[in-house]
Amino acid sequence: MVEIVTPEADDALAAVATLLHDFNLEYDEPSPEPEELAVTLRTRIADGNATLLLARDESGGPVGVAALRLQPSLWSDALEAYLAELYVVPARRGQGFGRELLTAVLDTSRAAGADYVYVITSEDDRLAQRAYEAAGFRRNEGEGGPILWAYEQDL
Amino acid sequence: MVEIVTPEADDALAAVATLLHDFNLEYDEPSPEPEELAVTLRTRIADGNATLLLARDESGGPVGVAALRLQPSLWSDALEAYLAELYVVPARRGQGFGRELLTAVLDTSRAAGADYVYVITSEDDRLAQRAYEAAGFRRNEGEGGPILWAYEQDL
């Protein structure tokens, strides 16, 4: 079951903050503490800069999260969607939660009026790649076109 | 010379819209007409969804554009920057305008409070890659880490 987290949903917000904190720790990234992160995320949801999707298991326990940015396209009145983060706790991987989250990401993006969605991943994250490909994402520009690379830098 | 385009700068806005229109046509992408695009872009600048940088040559003619999105980070009060588009007209490539635009992208992002910038490109666009690498972008996650891939789909 996947829910869209509202700024008022304290428990869901705390669960998402804990998941994203654990995500950072798993990948050796610096992370704010969950309490602090929950405050930031509440603001981001409230001002439209983030849409957070929380996956729960059959007993209601939080098992995964997707963080989405829905922003006005530069080209038209449509939106475009950037999937900024996707995480499923290690013990529950390979059990369909990632797929469920990605389905919710696409449904939520379409319902909001997005005509395009993109995501960046690492070449060694095969699990994520399989999930993205199963959900219809392609890493080629056009059919069989060149691969898309992302470049980044800290400022 | 690179300028930040304001919503009131009709001539600069028209020049940017024409450049982005020509960009789409060069890469066989569908594009709104320049007049229509200028209206959309004015709104995007005004509501903070786009920062547009226009490069001019020594006689003031428009030769290139960068379209930047500066958005609140999910993790902190910093911003993150997404370089959505970068274009230099074919006749003026290899003459330093891309580098000048990228310097302005980094300066503008830092000045706005961004701590991270990212961009997506195609593996066959060697000119763009060289420009990004010269400007300090890396396509590896961390030093010598795995390559970053982008995935996308139309909705």
Which tags fit this structure?
homodimer, 155 residues, alpha+beta, 5-stranded mixed sheet, 4 helices, 6 strands, 30% strand
Short overview:
Chain A has helices at 10-26, 34-46, 97-112, 126-134; strands spanning 2-4, 51-56, 62-72, 79-88, 114-122, 148-154. Chain A is an alpha+beta fold and 155 residues long. Chains A and B meet through helix 2, strand 3, strand 4, helix 3 and strand 5 of A and helix 2, strand 3, strand 4, helix 3 and strand 5 of B.
Structure write-up:
Two copies of one chain form a homodimer. Chain A is α+β, with helices and mostly antiparallel strands. The first copy, chain A, has helices at residues 10-26, 34-46, 97-112, 126-134, and strands spanning 2-4, 51-56, 62-72, 79-88, 114-122, 148-154. In chain A, helix 1 crosses helix 2. The longest helix of chain A is centred in the N-terminal third of the chain and has 17 residues, at 10-26. The radius of gyration of chain A is 15 Å and the shape is globular. Chains A and B meet through helix 2, strand 3, strand 4, helix 3 and strand 5 of A and helix 2, strand 3, strand 4, helix 3 and strand 5 of B. Strand 5 of chain A pairs antiparallel with strand 6 of chain B, so a sheet runs across the interface.
